[in-house]
Amino acid sequence: MKRARLPGVVPRPRLLALGLGAAALLALGTLSPVFVGLAAVLFVAAVGLAIADYRLAPALANAEVARIAEPQLIIGAPNRIGLTLRNPTARPLRLRVRDEVPVSFAVAPRVSTAVLAPAGSETVEYVARPRYRGSFRFGALHTRQRGPLDLVERQSEIAADAPAHVYPDLREIRRYEVSLRRGLAYDAGQRRARLPGAGSVFERLREYGPDDDPRSISWSATARRGRPISVEYETERQQRMLLLLDAGRMMASTLGELTKLDHAVNTALMLSYVATAKGDEVGLLGFADDVRSYLLPRRGRRQFLRITEELRRLEVTTTEPDYRGAFEFLRSRTSRRALVVLFTDLVDVEASRSLVAAVNRLAGNNLVLCCLLADPQLAEIASRTPRSTTELYERVAAEEVRDARARAIALLRERGVHVVDVPAERLTVAAIQRYLELKKRWL
Predict the structure, then answer these.
(1) ∠ at Cα 241 (326, 75), nearest 5°?
(2) What pLDDT score does 435 carry?
(3) Other CB atoms closer than 10 Å to residue 277's CB: what's the count?
(4) Which of 39, 229, 343, 407 has the fewest CB atoms within 10 Å, counting from its CB?
(5) Are residues 104 and 20 in the same domain?
(6) pTM summary value
(7) Which helix (H) or strand (E) segment is 298 a member of?
(8) For residue range 239-264, what is the model confidence (pLDDT) as tens digits?
(9) Quick one: 414 and 350 in the same domain?
């Protein structure tokens, strides 16, 4: 619980009206000195009443507050924050409360009202949507208590500094865990994907679903249970996956409320969770013009937690990505064959050339999956009929970017690179489906 600092005073509209009235009377003093006297009387009365109102307003010097928030706030998601205030006085309090949140948080409502009974407490809530990952700090809690004459508000600043750690979106992982417990197919809101995989090692029996292959039905189990039952097989364990995230300038543009890097981070986190749950080793490399983050491939939940922390701290930059340097760094650290999942984007010819020229350093000894974020707005501009000269130029530019991107993707595929190129909302499911497909033929 944090205690308040020294209070301040905020005038209310009623006090301002009295002040304007005194000013108007003073202006009329040019007509008669009587008005000057009346102005002085009104001014002194207003000041005296304001002081009395301030003193009658309950002081919050001993008020206490506790902030209630999840230790892991989620980027772009509605995070509920609670503020519990306790009234140590014997008088009821009606407060307006505003929390001092990091500037990158969108908050609603900005100001809450709390009614505290004598020696009582109450919790008010607001919703915060962080726009960036990383570590931030909550600041003070600001309260205003109106005086009984409604002339002033007594303002207090309650020290309530606390850390605020913003993580990638963990909600998909929680939904995945629920789907596993229920024996259901994972549904990311777009397409259904059987994440447990389809391999050659028996894993479990579960209820047959509409998206299951009819060949997976176990007729003996179906007869015993009286309803369709599927056999689920698990793919080979103890393989290796390396997650490479480009944090260069191309990943700084936004798709919806998040940057391209944020979308990539969310998908990479989900991929790492699925892979570690299957017993695979997972490593991480974040890079831009140099290596920003690196984790040796390991397996297990602890590795997933390490990856989560590294992804939380990975920030987008304004520099060009050095694919060659990143790939050479990776080759110098590991020689074992792996599935390399690269999250990047191709928005200009130079970047495309740089990636295509460097990718051979990875593709020779690894399976490479390149995950790109398709921009629906770019496709819409490139295909629409222009109605002005400006729109014509925009369409030509969009077509050039689209065509250069298509050529780069074709060159990557010619070099044996597997490519996922989908809008942001489909990236997670598409990447996991491709991971499971590639896992079956891993050597």
Answers:
(1) 80
(2) 92
(3) 18
(4) 407
(5) no
(6) 0.75
(7) strand 291-298
(8) 899 999 999 999 999 888 899 999 99
(9) yes
Please check whether residues 424 and 326 belong to one and the same domain: yes
Cα separation, 258 vs 100, in Å, equals 23
State both tokens at 293.
């983050």
Q: Is residue 219 part of a domain?
A: no
CA pair distance 229, 311, nearest whole angstrom: 39
From 134, 167, 200, give the residue that closes a domain.
167
Whether residue 200 lies inside any domain: the answer is no
Bridge partners of 232, per DSSP, are: 204
Q: What is the pLDDT at residue 38?
A: 80
Same domain as 247, residue 332: yes
Domain boundary among 117, 139, 167: 167
Q: Answer yes or no: is 20 within a domain.
A: yes
- Position 420 scores a pLDDT of 96
pLDDT the model gives residue 344: 95
The rounded mean pLDDT for the chain is: 82
Question: Which residues of 19-120 form beta strands (DSSP E)?
Answer: 64-68, 73-74, 79-86, 93-99, 105-108, 112-116
Same domain, 41 and 79: no
Query: Residue 115 is encoded by which pair of tokens?
Result: 């009614």
- Residue whose C-alpha is closest to residue 293's, from 359, 243, 250, 254: 243
- Same domain for 253 and 111, yes or no, is no
By DSSP bridging, strand 254-255 and strand 258-259 are antiparallel
Give the pLDDT score at 419. Answer: 94
Residue 162: which CATH number? 2.60.40.10
Low-confidence ranges of the chain (pLDDT < 50): 1, 3-6, 183-202, 235-236, 443
Q: What b-and-e string marks burial along 204-218, b requiring 16 or more CB atoms within 10 Å of the CB?
A: ebbebeeebeeebeb
CA distance 287 to 322: 8
Domain range for 29 = 10-56
Compute φ and ψ for 298, nearest 5 degrees. Answer: -145, 170
Residue 23 has a CB neighbour count (10 Å cut-off) of 13
Q: Please tell me whether the peptide bond between 58 and the residue prior to it is cis, using omega within 30 degrees of 0.
A: no
The pLDDT, as a whole number, for residue 48 is 79
Indicate which CATH number applies to the domain containing 312: 3.40.50.410
